[in-house]
Structures are given as structure tokens and as C-alpha cells.
Amino acid sequence: MSEAEFTSAAFYRFLGEHKLMGSRCKSGGEVYIPPRPICPADCSDDVEWVELSGKGKLAAFTIVYIGPSTMVAAGYDRKHPYCAGVVQLDEGPMISAQILGVDVTQPETIRIGVPLSVEFVERGEGEAKKTCLAFKPA
Questions:
Q1: Do residues 46 and 70 share a domain?
Q2: Is residue 45 part of a domain?
Q3: Same structural domain, 47 and 62
Q4: 3-state SS string over the chain?
Q5: What is the mean pLDDT of residues 21-39?
Q6: Domain's final residue, options 20, 35, 51
């Protein structure tokens, strides 16, 4: 799919293209996200890029009231919290991301196992513009 190195920088470049990419071990078929240049299961470096479906289920979540500076810059704070979650992707691996489209004022309404789909959120402007990974209920 690509000749890019299996690095976090390449992963984020793909996010900028609105592609959710991982690495897959050619011998065992295991999928990893973020990508890894060596498969931890069999220590093989025979890996390839694979585009993931962007579909999964919510495995865990928390409501964040005091976030990192990037989230504060995006407008989140104690009065405007956000949901961060762990998503079990249909392809197997898990990844953490912001969860959009849920009621953070009533976390008891957020359900583990709810189907989710990927969202690519643009933050910042000009040279500082970045694409962030998020998911929303499908």
C-alpha cells in the first residue's frame, strides 16, 4: 500500500490524508495500530501497511475535565469536558481516541460495546494544522 517507514510520523501523515493505517505481519496476519516495524508475535520484520475499516466498538471510556494543552486549545476545559475512549477495531487491535457524539454531561448514557466509526478532526490552522483521530457512534 505504501513504501513509508512504519513510524508514528507516517501514521500521522496518513491521518492527514484521512486514512486509518496500521501494520500487518505478513506471516502471522496480526494487525497493529499505531504501526510497528517488527511483529511482536514472531519478531518478523516482514510487515506491510494496511488500511483499516475505521469501524469498531467502544471498549472503555472516561470523561476528561482537565486535558492536555492541545485539547485546551481546542476549547475543552472543566466546563466543557470531552470523552476519551479505547476502541476495539473490527480488525482486532485497540486504539485510544476522542469519542464524539456522546453526552459527556451524562456519562451513564454512554455504553460499552456501542458501534463506532472513525472521524478525522482538523485542529489548528496553517502550519500548525493537524488531523486528530476520533470516533463517533455509527
A1: no
A2: yes
A3: no
A4: CCCCCCCHHHHHHHHHCCCCEEEEECCCCCEECCCCCCCCCCCCCCEEEEECCCEEEEEEEEEECCCCHHHHHCCCECCECEEEEEEEECCCCEEEEEECCCCCCCHHHCCCCCEEEEEEEEECCHHHCEEEEEEEEC
A5: 94
A6: 51
Question: Which CA distances in Å does 43 have to 22, 30, 38, 55, 64?
Answer: 17, 12, 6, 28, 37
pLDDT computed for residue 42 by the predictor: 93
Give pLDDT tens digits for 44-57.
999 999 999 999 99
Given this model, what pLDDT does residue 1 score?
47
Considering the domain boundaries, does residue 27 fall inside one?
yes
